């Protein structure tokens, strides 16, 4: 019997890479049934709702969502739908693995970093106020509950996958109360995992260290804003945002999405790279216990990237999305 998942087609390149990934999932024998909805800016302009009620209802039934990129207005308009989904369904753990692929040449080799980003609070809580016409305040929120669960998840992951070290990233030298509490909780929890090395580093130092010697990092855990910035930096180490997947996990709900945005500048040109979204789909398959299917897709992607004849322009090729998709399916 096929398992049902919810699929959100977003804006920009979202529909293109969604179609590509669903074709590959079907070719790999994933055994999934899709409840597909249009969401985002284009859906709002067409029908007056960013996310239709039926789309919410679907996710609340399937509890697994594969979501393509959604355009968020800058400095005006509605807040990020990603942030809204994370808060609405308490998808507190944003996991972003960045791993080098030998076929994608960058100045950095043997990068293998997994970033655990707390997903529901910090400055991303969006608690802001206008004090007067010349002053705006944004409030940073750190709680013990949210800090404990993301830090515990990072250590559990390290234990499960045989990782050697967890690094806590913070700015406790300046934000002594909020980031100081996050750091203190990190060391409290680390004592329950004596097999795993625990260290902490200040966020600006981490940014420098990641481009000097990224191989020193293994699993990293941090508040929301730092995780957003440093995971994009990590994508640059491995070849760009087109190669960085992510999962957003909570208690009973799971959302899988590429880290990159909707790329409206290349929408409709047929050159979008679906790899990050495809690898996010592999994380989804693994979450659903379909390990063999995920492994087959990962192997096929590695073969296509290694051969180099059907890769997209963002990673040095000249092939289109359809060519890439067909090449991956042929390896399956």
From TrEMBL:
The keyword Oxidoreductase belongs to this UniProt entry's keyword annotation: yes
Alphabetic keyword roster: Oxidoreductase
UniProt cross-references to Gene3D superfamilies, sorted A to Z: Isopropylmalate Dehydrogenase
GO biological process: isocitrate metabolic process; tricarboxylic acid cycle
GO molecular function, one term: isocitrate dehydrogenase (NAD+) activity
PROSITE patterns xref list: IDH_IMDH (PS00470)
Family annotation (InterPro entries): IsoCit/isopropylmalate_DH_CS, IsoPropMal-DH-like_dom
Keyword Signal: no
Pfam families cross-referenced by the UniProt entry: Iso_dh (PF00180)
PANTHER family: DECARBOXYLATING DEHYDROGENASES-ISOCITRATE, ISOPROPYLMALATE, TARTRATE, ISOCITRATE DEHYDROGENASE [NAD] SUBUNIT ALPHA, MITOCHONDRIAL
Family the entry assigns: Belongs to the isocitrate and isopropylmalate dehydrogenases family.
Protein name (Swiss-Prot/TrEMBL): Isocitrate/isopropylmalate dehydrogenase family protein
Species in which this protein is naturally found: Clostridium porci
